Amino acid sequence: MPPVVLVEHLTKYYGARRAVSDVSFDMRPGEVMGLLGPNGSGKSTILRILTGYLQPSSGRAQICGFDVVSQSLQARQCVGYVPEDVPLYAQMRVHEFLTFMGRLRGLEGAGCARAIDEVIERLSFGRYRHQLIGKLSRGYRQRVAIAQALLGRPKLLVLDEPTNGLDPRQIIEVRELIRALANDMAILVTSHILVEIERVAQRVAILLDGRLLGVRALSDSKMGLEALFLSLTEGEPQ
Amino acid sequence: MRAFSALVDKELRTLFQAPIAWIVIGVFLGLTGYSFTLTLFNNRYATLVHIFFQVAGLLLLIVPIITMRLLAEERRAGTLELLLTAPVKESHVVLAKYLAGMAVVLIMIGLTATYAVVLGLYGTPEWGPIYSGYLGLALLASTLVSLGLAVSAFTSNQVIAAIVTIGISFFLWMVDTLAAMLPDGLERIFISLSLLARFTPFATGAMYTSDAGFFISTTLLALFIAMRALARR
């Protein structure tokens, strides 16, 4: 099966600073992969390149066979993305926002309404569909953000630090949701918290200072993720 | 086109749901109405020339207030990331915002047509200069809206976007005043860049394709800069 994500020698500079350095990995359909690394290790930059928000300085990335630079629109059509800090239009109502995002993804009329009903039901926030987004709690804002990413049935769901700022119950719900969604799509999730990746991912890519230290299948690894992280980062400058 | 119409709908809704558009339109009509009434009663001439210049002056101040949030607010709130990672072209995002901004300004300008109706009912105005004046205002608005949009694309701070746009707009409005101090070649360039020099023929009933071409070219240039600013990531 062709990879959903193919990243080859990806490098990104912000001015003179190298944020991502020669990173390569791939993802198969239905796989949940975790990008693990401390803050500033380049996780969000990689996601932003994959989702078309940033352009790489060198190297290439493909989503579903589409180059993220030269075939950006087609690549973006295959991706649902939830950025860190969940930016949403606070002045819009939930259904209005989802309709807008659905239309951006090419959904229209009854098809769009059906897709919205589907994601609202899946994420269980039907009673908030007419609520102003600005009045929602962090947890429900997160659900709305995930809902918009699921519209149009993307082949890849990209979640940047999806459990940030959530309470324990909401964290558990997000983990369960990721596991459930993995039946339908590949999921790339970032976190700087070991346990978050360990609970949901089948494979993990460990990043430090923009460099990829290694990619491991969690099921194959005899050591836990904590030991794996320590072994890969041993001798690295703090 | 579906995505584009969704973008336009969203921009129009955002602009008209916020009180700022209505306040701006209200203040604008109050000021121009006061000036129209006063001038009409004092001079008793069936002309709108003074109104066209007054509206143009107000546009230099008002358009930046309308355009300041168009991209700067998206950047500040982080929603620009959401927008630009959806399968839509940067050019569509910019054009949708331009059309929404133009809609507000054209409604504002269009409402002043009631003054022309009053002149038509109670006097015998020359309609040629009135038509050309409105065309000139629409072209000037187009340049100012696209300029404000371009500035808004470079910052996440609405106030900075507004102040810089006002500064550039006023500079371009009166840049011909510098011309007298400059050598011949430069003098012509500075006069040709002046919004006032380009707008005056329209307001007084003369229409030149070169002036219309200037407003259209500056609009396209500013929209292109805004698109490049979004694409430069």
Q: State the end-to-end distance of chain B.
A: 24 Å
CATH fold descriptor of the largest domain in chain A: Rossmann fold
Oligomer: heterodimer
Whole-number mean pLDDT of chain A: 91
Strand order of the largest sheet of chain A: 6-7-8-3-9-10
Overall number of strands of chain A? 10
Rg of chain A, rounded, reads: 18 Å
Helicity of chain A, as a percent range = 25-40%
What is the 3D form of chain B? Answer: globular
User: Could you say which overall geometry of chain A the principal axes of the C-alpha atoms support?
Assistant: globular
Number of helices of chain A: 8
Which stretches of chain A are low in confidence, meaning pLDDT under 50 for 5 or more residues running?
A: none
Number of domains of chain B: 1
SSE ordering of chain A: EEEHEEHEHHHEHEHEEH
Low-pLDDT sequence parts of chain B: none
At CATH level 2, the architecture of the largest domain in chain A is: 3-Layer(aba) Sandwich
Concise description?
With 238 residues, chain A is of the alpha/beta class. Chain A is built from eight helices and ten strands.
What would you say this structure looks like, in words?
The complex is a heterodimer of chains A (238) and B (233). Chain A has 238 residues and is an alpha/beta fold. Chain A folds into 2 domains: 163 residues, Rossmann fold (3-Layer(aba) Sandwich), CATH 3.40.50; 68 residues, no CATH class. Chain A is 35% helix and 26% strand. Chain A has 8 helices and 10 strands. In chain A, the strands form 2 sheets. Chain A has a 6-stranded mixed beta sheet with strand order 6-7-8-3-9-10, with helices on both faces. In chain A, helix 3 packs across helix 4, helix 3 packs parallel to helix 5 and helix 4 crosses helix 5. The longest helix of chain A is centred in the middle third of the chain and has 15 residues. The radius of gyration of chain A is 18 Å and the shape is globular. The mean pLDDT of chain A is 91. Chain B is mostly helical and 233 residues long. Chain B has one domain. Chain B is built from 11 helices and no strands. The radius of gyration of chain B is 19 Å and the shape is globular. The interface between A and B is medium-sized, with 27 and 23 residues.
